[in-house]
Design goal:
The protein has 546 residues and is an alpha+beta fold. The strands form three sheets. It has a six-stranded antiparallel beta sheet with strand order 2-3-1-9-8-10, with no helix packed on it. A hairpin with a 2-residue loop joins β4 and β5. α2 packs across α3 and α6 runs parallel beside α17. The longest helix has 26 residues.
Amino acid sequence: MCGIFGGSRELISPDSARLLQHRGPDQHGELDVSAPGGRPFILGQTRLSVVDKRDVPTPMQKGGAAIAFNGEVYNWLELRSELEHKGHRFETQTDTEVVLAAFLEWGVACLDRLNGMFALAIWNGGELFLARDRLGKKPLFYSYGPGGFAFGSELKVFQSLDFAEVPICQALEFYFDEHTPFRNVKSLRPGECLRYKPATNEVDVRRWWRFPEFEPSIVDENEATTQFLDLFADACKLRKLADVPVTIFLSGGIDSSLIQATLGLPVTYTVQFPEFEATINERELVLELSQRLGFEPRFVMPTRDEFLGAFSELARYIEFPVGSFSVFPLYCISQRARHDGFVVALSGEGADELFNGYYRHELLLREDAALEQEFRGPYGTLCRRYFGAPVERFCRMASRQGLAGVPDLLDFFTPLWSDRETLAQNLSRIEATVFLQPLLVMADRLSMGNSIEVRNPFLDYRIVEFSTRLADSLKFRDGQGKWLLRHALYRLVGDVGVTRRRVKHGLPAPVNQWLFKTGAFDRKDWNHVLLGECLKQLALTHGTRH
């Protein structure tokens, strides 16, 4: 895992390597490349050594090309073998060198072969090529205008930032796709690639990956469970491979428990807030699972004083609000794991999105099942007019501003909604391609702020594709989501509290209690406070204007 930056020197902070040191504390380097017309153009990287702990060329060069790479490609050994048969020779034991060779061999088509998380920049033939992984696990921002082009893993590397509100992001309370809080900086969207030609100062952005079409061919529950467990075991095994110690962020929920039941890692980390112990008791469920599987659970119990002391650092790492109370707990659990010597942690992001696991999904799908007979009856037109179309009910649920916020969400989500797909399928696709993004921002920033790499088995593209082949009834059944995952976990560990748990609360921190003396889970005030501190920290970084 690393931090990358580069482009026209006047657009990038001269301190970029230092500003991204938390992402790559083990090595850093810059490379001056020859841009057509003689304009100064750089490629830079900081490196966290996870695979091949020796010092390696950073950025790496091969065949007249150079790469700055952030992420992990888990099938790099397989690709390396294939490339060696084609005549390529390698000097390091890194996925970075393999990715560069793959690009030289197959061009942009190499991205389809990569199983992993990545944001990369390749300089080749006087052009810059950028790409981001399928679901956006690794960040990549860019700035483009008459003055040239620049890119970076985080906003703090850009020399100038011009603040501007984004209405749809205000409505959703998080940033996603190309949107950032700054009008002069965009995010490369998940599954996108970009070419920049310095000679003409032209940019071409294209999609290289889209969420798969739903083709629900798997209907048998035993077949589905067996296929899932085989595939998931391989996804977990690949993400366990590292030349550094590996742990897991374990909650009392289905997703991370499935990872632990599959891998049996010796040490786990769990956050438990004393304020929530009576209602959200992760500790009790994790202790029961540890007795069943035989591992050492370590608990992190953050306090209000620790939150106030870390607030400025949280804002410096996260850079913009993500509409979640989980910023602080993710920071604390990453900090503790790194302090104990771990450099890689596995985590369960993606399962709820792909397998209809959120309570909001259950609410909508239970309602849909109850209304199905009414919609088909003699008063179906009246019922549809009264209850609204599925996308309307979804927007009412998703609105953070009540009914007043629904029209704006309808304008945005209606073009994304597919009448060819069921409600469950629409929910999975929209959650995975929109609502998952801020969670991945959070996981990346707060872990990398502590120089620890988080890996997500559920985001293996093969798991994503598998989820689209499942019948809806294998995801949502008996009024509850993630049916298949519960069934798979039961097959591995039997009857325990985690498999019986009806409601999962996520990973909230009692921020509203600490700051605003309320137990409500409304995020609006928290978002405002965090945004203000984020802007302050960016300004302090290197005199950014807002």
